[in-house]
Amino acid sequence: MTCRIFTVIVVFNGRNWIERCLDSLKKSSLPVTPVVIDNGSTDGSSDFITAHFSGIVLLRHKTNLGFGAANNLGLNYALEQKADYVLLLNQDAWIAEDMLQKMIAAFHNHPNYGLLSPFHLNYDGTATERYFEEWVLKHYTQGYEAYTRRREQPEVLPCTFVHAACWLIPLSTIQTVGGFDPVFFHYGEDNDFIQRLQSRGLVAGIVPSATVYHYGTNDGLVEPQKNVRHLTNQILLRIKNPEASHAGALFLFLKQFLKVMMKGPNTPSGKAYQAVFYLLPRLLHSRIRQKNDGAFL
What we know:
The protein has two domains: 5-217, Spore Coat Polysaccharide Biosynthesis Protein SpsA, Chain A, CATH 3.90.550.10; 224-289, no CATH class. By secondary structure, the protein is an alpha/beta fold. The strands form two sheets. The chain has a five-stranded mixed β-sheet, sandwiched between helices. Strands 5, 6, 7 and 9 form a four-stranded mixed β-sheet that branches. Helix 9 (228-240) packs antiparallel against helix 10 (246-263), helix 9 (228-240) runs parallel beside helix 11 (268-289) and helix 10 (246-263) runs antiparallel to helix 11. It is 45% helix and 19% strand. It has helices at 15-26, 45-52, 67-80, 99-109, 130-140, 144-149, 171-177, 189-199, 228-240, 246-263, 268-289; strands spanning 5-11, 33-39, 57-61, 85-89, 93-95, 113-121, 157-159, 166-170, 203-214.
């Protein structure tokens, strides 16, 4: 059975990465249509793509919209083109030739999954990608330690979180969950998406036999308690949690906000809580929207 697969790639000054990324899509055993959103690059990324690649849908934007909002442009385009699946792929990643074939087979065999991600190796394939190994596998993947001791590979490993460097999402998930909440400018939008996915009774998973190669950096891993953006996103996620009531989420935030301000507004936590305080009207609106099918698209 044939299916229409669109790959959404957000590019921000990704000239050094995008050639290998797009080359790998050309070699995919299943045909894909790449949709590239240039998110305000200043390094000639768009001109390079136009000069060296054909068959690419290129959507240029003059300013940096943020990772989630830019991905939403690509998701909307794929929906308009009646995509069956959308692959979200980072600019600093490239895929194995048979990756999509293995992942779509896994979806057919496990229809309760709302999104799947492959196994992440580092960019040159010599080791497991650091964040994937130290966080996704060790802390968020059910049964991973048992899996490493078995010879027989399960087709899918359920996980409670996997970062959005390489997600394959079926049309049904996009119609049910929607896109990314643009209140998250960078990082945190994938955590929020999976929170909303799980609130709809869907599951995220990893296909161990499928492979993506990802350079991967995450500034939030470096002294996270001093990283204001990381702290801000953690607060946003608590407020956005679909399991909490509007009143309960707001009360707990304001209570903690006052406590943190009394300790010192210029600490990393103080700066993060102040940033979220100014976002409260948008956040409360987001909580209402996230209950709708196709939220944020």
